[in-house]
Amino acid sequence: MASVRDYYCAPDLYDVIYSDISDDAAFWVGCARAAAGPVLELACGNGRLLVPCAAAGADIEGLDLTPAMVESLRGKLAAQRLRAAVAVGDMRDFTRPRRYALIFIAFNSFLHNLTQEDQLATLRGCRQHLAPGGRLMISVFHPDARKLIEHDGTPRVIKTLPQPGGGSAKVTDRGRCDPIAQLVQVARQVEMRDVRGGVTETHEMSFELRYVYLPEMELLLTLAGFSRFAVEARTGYTAGFAPKAALENGDPVVWTAWKD
Question: What's the whole-model pTM score?
């Protein structure tokens, strides 16, 4: 099992970087509300999805590797007078007392498993914690060779986000791709700018993802003990996260695997 570290940025900075990502929330809230039993979100972070699920009345719990993220999530739940059991834990090796109707891993978080061993450990642990007939759902991006080639070490501004009260956050990534190991390594810089465009803060961070192709994911799910699964393409996280009839490279996909 590969070693890991805490999530690559602080909770407040995470909220800034991903302030434009919200289109998948309604989808996951709908899945959580429709579950015929308790729900577990793995790699829940500081609650971008768990908080709205709890607010919608879902019986949801959360697990995340980083203590700071879990504490931030607890603060958000308390601020809205919501209750959900959240804890620090590793999706590759966790034990919970309940069995769940739905376990989900959203927004590419499964790709923080950097080896097949870790991916399998996560999938097997999820299956163990599902109730009979329960579902595991995972959203990841489908690899796009053209985009992967762009990870050549060249800095690229990926977005500039307006901030409350004026100013902006400029996010620049410098990525490198290892096509043999299927790893993307990203060095990220976030510049906080005032209303005049002056830089007030600069944050440097890095993270890695291991991307997964469809046939590989099918094999991983089979090895983890799932006999029935399906995949659905969806539009982007800022493009409605709606279902698509045909998969295109780079699309988010949602895997669903059932515990028969």
Answer: 0.96
